[in-house]
Write a structure and sequence with these properties.
The protein is an alpha/beta fold. The chain is 41% helix and 25% strand. The longest helix has 36 residues. The protein is elongated. The structure holds ligand C2E and calcium ion (2 copies).
Length: 393
């Protein structure tokens, strides 16, 4: 939001700014009329007359060049000033693609208008700094555009794959179910981790299509994968991203995928993080309740890393708590981590939930978790995520 907007009043004929002035703000006309002049062949010529609600001097918001025109009040005007500094702070928080677009538009505008040459060493330096900043933004934007274009191709060219990692009973090591984890077989970069592209897919909205792909692939693979467990109620756990929380549309998508592959709804588990709930608490409650009523089970992922609250566990129909690897992996060396793990397990059990400890890499950790009465575990000790063909018998 633009805060600290100031008002300025100019009388008839008064100059608001003139060509060559340092421009540090733009103006919005709240009341009155302003005329704009430029110097052509040494002669000042009026090029525009603008009134209420119109903006002028806007190039200064991004450009750190001298003014290329003169603005004068033709009657009393009331102007709202928008400081460059404020806009720069806002732009900094903006997506690099949007920033890049703005900078390109500005560059074209400047070239078309023919900008006054920098007049001093200081201005030369400023200009060089600005160019360097533009290039950095351009680089970032190009990288994002290229990657999002690549993700689009990956979806159509079948470059994604789903790996499965076993979730086992801590006491016996028996496989209870699997978690589906996406991988990208990039044609030039090899196997790409989800952590390297899901953040961008989340920003571009491509995550919705990826989410649907994952769900479909998991349902399609399930009959084969299911055969490798002896569990009474085996399940496959699919990660859900915040953008998939689109209300009833998501419920319908789940229903139709399950119907297409004839998969029992009780064998599908959806993993969500608290961000999913925090962003849209009411939609989440409605949607998750609906999914639960259908027979789907729900797990809260990465427990302990977000703003975990008792309220979340209490209000939402979540059957499984997954304790984050950050705590499991350090529980033998940090008393604090061990306390977090043990109290999370107690909390989950007191609410009638199952607990999965993530990231179990050693037998020592498994034994300690068993002592703490954790019922399920996932980690390299039991098995790394693997391709279906390497799991299925
Ligand atoms: P997550 O849901 O917490 O998944 C567990 C991650 O921990 C996986 O990383 C898994 O390979 C890794 N892991 C499991 N056991 C161990 C262990 O013993 N030691 C260590 N060091 N790591 C272990 P991965 O596959 O790279 O996935 C990273 C994250 O990407 C996932 O974290 C999940 O948030 C997200 N993700 C993966 N697949 C999907 C997907 O299909 N959809 C969505 N929305 N997110 C996904
Ligand atoms: Ca997960
Ligand atoms: Ca997790």
């Amino acid at each position: 939001m633009l805060n600290n907007l100031n008002r300025q009043v100019f009388g008839i004929g008064e100059t608001i700014f003139k060509e060559g002035d340092e421009g540090d703000c733009a103006y919005l006309i709240e009341d009155g009329v302003v005329e704009i002049f430029v110097t052509i062949n040494g002669q000042e010529q009026r090029v525009n007359q603008i009134g209420k609600s119109e903006l002028f001097g806007e190039v200064a918001l991004i450009d750190q060049q001298p003014r290329t025109a003169t603005a004068r009040a033709t009657q009393k005007v009331v102007l709202i000033t928008i400081q460059r500094k404020t806009v720069a702070e806002l732009l900094e928080k903006t997506d690099p693609i949007v920033r890049h677009l703005l900078l390109v538009i500005l560059e074209r505008y400047r070239n078309k208008r023919g900008t006054a040459k920098p007049q001093s060493i200081e201005q030369e330096q400023k200009r060089a700094e600005l160019t360097a900043q533009h290039n950095a933004v351009r680089g970032e934007a190009t990288q994002k555009l290229t990657m999002s274009n690549d993700i689009g191709r990956a979806l159509t060219q079948d470059e994604f794959d789903l790996y499965y990692q076993p979730i086992c009973e801590i006491a016996t090591g028996q496989i209870a179910g699997y978690e589906a984890l996406i991988r990208w077989r990039h044609p030039t970069q090899g196997l790409v981790s989800p952590l390297d592209f899901l953040w961008l897919a989340e920003q571009t909205g491509q995550i919705r299509e990826i989410g649907l792909w994952t769900l479909e692939r998991a349902a399609r693979d399930w009959p084969t994968l299911r055969k490798s467990t002896h569990a009474k109620q085996p399940f496959v756990s699919v990660n859900m991203s915040p953008s998939q929380l689109t209300g009833e549309r998501f419920v319908e998508e789940v229903k139709s995928v399950l119907a297409l592959y004839n998969m029992p709804v009780t064998e599908l588990k959806l993993e969500l993080t608290e961000t999913v709930i925090i962003n849209k608490p009411e939609v989440a409650l409605q949607l998750l309740t609906h999914l639960k009523e259908m027979g789907c089970s729900l797990a809260i992922d990465d427990f302990g890393t977000g703003h975990s609250s008792l309220d979340t566990l209490n209000r939402y129909p979540i059957g499984t708590m997954k304790v984050d690897r950050a705590f499991t992996s350090t529980m033998l060396t940090s008393t604090q981590s061990e306390k977090i793990v043990s109290s999370s397990i107690d909390l989950a059990h007191s609410l009638g939930m199952d607990v999965v400890a993530e990231g179990i890499e050693t037998e020592e950790v498994r034994v300690r978790l068993l002592e703490l009465k954790c019922n399920f575990g996932q980690g390299w000790l039991f098995g790394k995520p693997a391709e279906l063909k390497n799991i299925a018998r």
